[in-house]
Amino acid sequence: MEANAPKRKEARKSLRIKVISMGNAEVGKSCIIKRYCEKRFVPKYLATIGIDYGVTKVQVRDREIKVNIFDMAGHPFFYEVRNEFYKDTQGVILVYDVGQKESFDALDAWLAEMKQELGPHGNMDNIVFVVCANKIDCTKHRSVDESEGRLWAESRGFLYFETSAQTGEGINEMFQVTRKKTVRVQTLYLARMADCKIFSELPDPTKLIDPLPQRIFPSEVTPLESCSCLVPGVAWSLKSRGRAMQWGAVDVQQLCRRSTLP
């Protein structure tokens, strides 16, 4: 190989997202996933035995995102199987049939089951929840209005979509928005974790001395008076000798590595 040959840019590691679907039996969870992953509709009802699985890959700039979707059986008989799959979930699709009021009323019970299985230390704040009002093609038998379903979702901070697995209406949009928001939430979550690690290793800012770049502070050795996060994983405000400057993530990490106590 020639010495001057350009180096091949290494592909970034694939990002994996875990999404689960929850809801009563026969609300169309499996059909929604097949419509999205396999672009087809299965008219004959086949009950999910335990857990079904679908995966789709999306290329976003230089990174591949794998969306792993776990379809959980809605029958109470499969509770012991379901409870093994709640952990490490990043996205949840709560599905109900707009023609079955009982499936809509059961959504609270599904949330309670998940919370119970995650335990007292389970964090649901970083999970993206999406309410899927399915089978909107069956307009004659609709018993849950859009306004009622949307109000239930938005009052809990959840996304809301109306879908039809049979016609495909709303399916792609729902999964695309779910994927984008899940990636965004997880990215911010990991950034916050990185912030905690950075500042847990940072000495008392009033005692910290560091040779800061002269383009920012002209003094050769500058005491750092305070530091605060402006945007998780992106920018911090560092104050020295009464002057506050915004620093990026790389600068703060270098500051921590180079810092020495007097």
UniProtKB/TrEMBL annotation:
Q: Which UniProt keywords apply?
A: GTP-binding, Nucleotide-binding
**Pfam families membership:** Ras (PF00071)
**Keyword Iron-sulfur part of the UniProt annotation:** no
Superkingdom: Eukaryota
Q: Which InterPro entries match?
A: P-loop_NTPase, Small_GTP-bd, Small_GTPase
- List, alphabetically, the SUPFAM superfamilies matched: P-loop containing nucleoside triphosphate hydrolases (SSF52540)
Q: GO MF annotations for this entry? A: GTP binding; GTPase activity
Query: Can you tell me which family this protein belongs to?
Result: Belongs to the small GTPase superfamily. Rab family.
Please state what the protein is called. DnaJ heat shock protein family (Hsp40) member C27
Q: Which organism is it from?
A: Gallus gallus (Chicken)
